[in-house]
Amino acid sequence: MYPVSQRTEQVTLEYDFSRVEPEQNKRRSEIFEQMNESSNWFFIQKHGWHLPATLEPHEWCGTWSWRGCLNVNGHSGSECSNKVFVKTFQKSCYRADCQVCWKKWLARESNKSTKRIEKYEELSGKSVKHIVISVPKWEYGKDKKELAKWARKILKEVKADGGCMVFHPFRYNREEKFWYYSPHFHVLGFGWIEAVAQAYQKYGWIVKNLGTRDSTFATVYYQLSHAGIRKHNHVLTWFGDLSYSKLEIKNDDDLNQKCPYCFEKLIEVYSLGAYRDKPPSIDMELIAEPYEWTSDKLGDEYLYAKI
Ligand SMILES: [Zn+2]
Ligand SMILES: [Zn+2]
């Protein structure tokens, strides 16, 4: 078996943190500090809402396994000729709630959303803006559905063409280091004039313009990291020109899950050779001998027979 070297550039990174400036990486780590230093990240609950990463993982979350392509016939003429292609991967449930997988959820959702926003920027020539719509205190008893209706009404009034909306039930008290109920919506969107958004105040609802200091990826990542999580709720929703029906995005998420030689979908595979006992806990790609790999899950009999 030989490690693959020349063709790594063909495989897209699952999470492209290289797009993020060092300054913004600092901001990204801020949330992990707030999670650990705060007294109530894991306990705060209101109307069924909670913060991400508060539930136990499945037993397989974060465990390493192999994916590969055993389609030897499709590999002729390449450096993988007469060989199979395999790579390690970490199993993930991609749930926002999962204590092990939530960062994968965060990265995946942020990447997807960034792509959508950047696509619209490219098509429209406009640049994305970030506002916060805060719920007045006397409306705190109302459910998000009701609050979101108001938020959408406001977006119409400030003339937003489209964007995405994330509901935050909680705010963080940096001095006292705790989270408290203070519902608001973050909107990354297009169309309004900053001054209009900033000036909006009607029925006690306040719209604040946050400017565009951070990259889109860093902003989405940060907003999702402490978003409200509740069953059957979509953490991030699109509206107007950026809704699914109006803006089509080619989904190349799967590129990472395809064979770089024959483009078949990678399947879970098992080693009959050197890696039989346990995959290494590291990202790794190999071009390997076909007889050393199988797609049949190995039963105990096999493992015991070999011992
Ligand atoms: Zn998980
Ligand atoms: Zn292949």
Descriptors for this entry?
307 residues; alpha+beta; 2 domains; six-stranded antiparallel sheet; 6 helices; 12 strands; disordered N terminus; binds zinc ion
Which quaternary structure do these chains form? single chain
Radius of gyration: 23 Å
Placed side by side, the strands forming the largest sheet appear as 1-11-3-2-10-12
Compressed to H and E, one letter per element, the order equals EHEEHEHEEHEEHEEEEH
**Biggest sheet, in brief?**
6 strands, antiparallel
Unreliable segments (pLDDT under 50, ≥5 consecutive)?
Answer: 1-17
> Per the principal axes of the C-alpha atoms, what is the gross shape?
elongated
Strand content: 15-25%
Distance between the termini: 23 Å
Q: Which structural class best describes the helix and strand composition?
A: alpha+beta
Number of discrete helical segments: 6
Considering DSSP H and I runs of 4 or more, what fraction of the residues is helical? 10-25%
Mean pLDDT: 87
Bound molecules: zinc ion
Please give the domain count.
Answer: 2
- Number of distinct beta strands: 12
Structural commentary:
- It is built from six helices and twelve strands.
- It has 307 residues and is an alpha+beta fold.
- It folds into two domains: 58-92 and 253-306, no CATH class; 98-240.
- The strands form two sheets. It has a six-stranded antiparallel beta sheet, with no helix packed on it.
- The longest helix has 23 residues, at 102-124.
- The protein is elongated, with a radius of gyration of 23 Å.
- The chain starts with a strand and ends with a helix.
- The relative contact order is 0.21.
- Bound molecules: zinc ion (ZN) (2 copies).
- One zinc ion (ZN) binds at residues 57-58, 61, 92-93, 95, 98, 100-101.
